[in-house]
Write a structure and sequence with these properties.
single chain; 5-stranded mixed β-sheet; 3 helices; about 40% helix
Length: about 110
């Protein structure tokens, strides 16, 4: 991983810890392993209780719409199959304009927006 990638990862972990989330294991899963072409960063984390968390990071200039919610749900299903387990928590950090309907859809689908 590049030096900037490690800095980004440290910043993400620090942000999560400030929010009260502590993980004993944190690993990045490359989108190409899931057969996904989206520019997204995907992480799998395990908290001290042994619960798994899926974390998606999206950075883009265009607005996140309803179709993107469906795409993230599909990526999540691929991740669950790839990791061979379901996740207790689904977190998503979006650094892009977010449509209000898409925001509601993420929450309804069980995502926690960071």
């Amino acid at each position: 991983m590049s030096d900037t990638g490690e800095k980004d990862l440290k910043m993400i972990i620090d942000d999560l810890q400030q929010g009260g989330r502590i993980y004993k294991r944190f690993e990045e899963i490359l989108p190409k392993h899931l057969g996904v072409r989206n520019r997204i960063r995907i992480f799998r984390a395990v908290d001290p209780s042994g619960y798994f968390t899926a974390l998606f990071l999206i950075e883009q200039k265009s607005r996140i719409l309803m179709k993107d919610v469906l795409k993230m749900e599909e990526i999540y299903r691929k991740l669950a199959i790839y990791c061979d387990h379901n996740f207790k928590y689904k977190l998503i950090r979006i650094e892009a304009p977010l449509c209000s309907k898409a925001e509601r859809a993420f929450v309804d689908a069980g995502w926690k927006l960071l």
